[in-house]
Amino acid sequence: MKMMRTMVVVIVFGVLGLCGVAVFAAGQEVAGPVVIDVRTEAEWNGGHLQGAVLIPHDKIEQGITAVVPDKKTKIYLYCHTGRRSGIAAETLKKGGYGDVVNLGTMENASRHWKSRL
Hints:
The chain is α/β, with parallel strands linked by helices. It has a single domain, classed as 3-Layer(aba) Sandwich (Oxidized Rhodanese, domain 1). About 45% of the residues lie in helices and about 15% in strands. The chain has 5 helices and 4 strands; from the N terminus they run αβαβαβαβα. The longest helix has 18 residues, at about 1-20. The protein is globular. About 30% of the residues are buried.
């Protein structure tokens, strides 16, 4: 029975990966501030900021509440060029998230976080 539950968990994580939200456990909320990588899963697999959460920009509206249910949480976004993080920022703001920052590129986001350490 325990082995069956383990298999179900693996399958659930696999399904989440296909949905594009592959870096958190089902039902796990992230305490703010939150850094969200809005690139594709393939780009994420090629490298990402430690501690970031993956929600591709085209899935941000559906995926954000599972990760950040509190709309007052500070959210930082990044992608490859800043275009997709800009789109995601506008989507989140329209959805009622009030403290959203577009950091642009992953390199800029990395510099931002290094300066906070």
